[in-house]
């Protein structure tokens, strides 16, 4: 059971550990990221950051069985490093009602759409396609923050150009 899918360039960090995990009351965190999975140091640091009662899986994106994670009944937070990973996960069985954009850093061709989220045109289009398939897309760094939904993100993206 997927509780939330979050895109965050930093994956597991203070906002996730201190705000999202207690808010969501998850039993498992799945980090689907090639770079994190290939680094013993990153894997160890992430695993140590999360309380021991919560299972942490850190796997390359292509090795996550998204369909199984979506159906097994375990309250799960799925963390992806970038927007480009979301359509891949979705096409490979990830069932999600909601996608949270937490921290997507500035980069070439990206425009600021919230205090912590910058999107390129292709990323915005991918999010719009997910929304058309029933996924609620929002941006907010922490649960207490007011969310910015996709129509507002799209408007802000247009005005930022």
TrEMBL record:
Record localization: Cytoplasm
PTS EIIB type-4 domain ranges (all copies): 1-161
Keyword annotations of the record: Cytoplasm, Kinase, Phosphotransferase system, Sugar transport, Transferase, Transport
Principal subcellular localisation of the protein: cytoplasm
MF annotations from Gene Ontology: kinase activity; protein-N(PI)-phosphohistidine-sugar phosphotransferase activity
GO CC terms in record: cytoplasm
Protein name: PTS mannose/fructose/sorbose transporter subunit IIB
Source organism of this protein record: Corallococcus aberystwythensis
